[in-house]
Design goal:
Layout lengths: L1 H9 L6 H13 L15 H15 L1 H4 L8 E2 L1 H17 L9 E5 L5 E4 L4 E5 L5 E2 H22 L6 H4 L5 H16 L7 H11 L8 H20 L5 H19 L15 H17 L3 H6 L10 H9 L4
Parallel strand pairs: 2-4
Antiparallel strand pairs: 1-5, 3-4
Length: 318
Amino acid sequence: MINNLRDKVVNYQGTDDTALTIKQELLGLLPEDLPSTDNTQTIDYAELINYYRPLIEVYFAGLLAVVPDDKDRFEPEDMVQVFAAGIRYYESIGLVEPGKWDSEINPDSKSIATNQERCRIEVGAKRKSMSNMEMKQSLLHEDGIHLLRRLLGDKASFAAMGTGLVGYEDPEEGICVVVEQIYEGQPRDAGVKYYTLLGLASGLDGKKRDFRETYEIAWRREAMLKLVENNQELSEKVISKVKKQAYIQCVRIFRGTPCNLPGVVFPKDIFYFDGNEKIWRYFDEIKGDEATFKKLFVGKYNPTDPEHQKLVEAATWS
């Protein structure tokens, strides 16, 4: 991953003085000649998207139908209505008793979350508006996976399928992200920035780094990616923006630590990448087995864990 980043930066052939300065600074901060760790079989994302998108469209047709096709933008209040309509759909087909679940605004948040304890899908009042596609992806994420796995799990012969088997969380998030990407038709490297920065901060290249050292790499990485991937000019405004983004990234990976101790990080965000990658590979393994695909949604478990798989095979549903 670092080698790939170095290659992108080295291959930049622009003439802008600011960009060239940032390029040289970043190359001086990044480790060199790291051994390749990619010994896994390449995933054909296009093939998987072509296979799974029709399955997702059919399996979730009733749920996706609650999103009005003629609406272009969705504000937080609109999102609440869509998530609630998804819940009403589940009520109409007998998956949950009326009134048990609902959706509501969380006045202090920017995020969207399925709160299992409160039986609520919470939409942050400060959440940015969504496009129609983003609304459908979010509906698949929250109602289609987090909530559906809870509702079907509650009907299993042992209660833990609803509340979640130990270790289900990260794989479930991976399923959410992969299903979103398949529906959109565009795979993304979820969590690459956190994976990269956590590796550098924790010293996987032999040099541990503190908050400041990691931040100096992070903002230059963001700037060069804007340049080489999006062909975006590095104006003062863009540089200011990527510095803010990099600061937020570093706050996430150093949260709960003194920040000035090299190598001491909060590693949770590494699962955004690991979970995404593992689930893509699982989807690749089960391609062609529609029954196993549908089984992904019957409860909160890790489909890549053999012990979880045995429990699912032994369970019955009412």
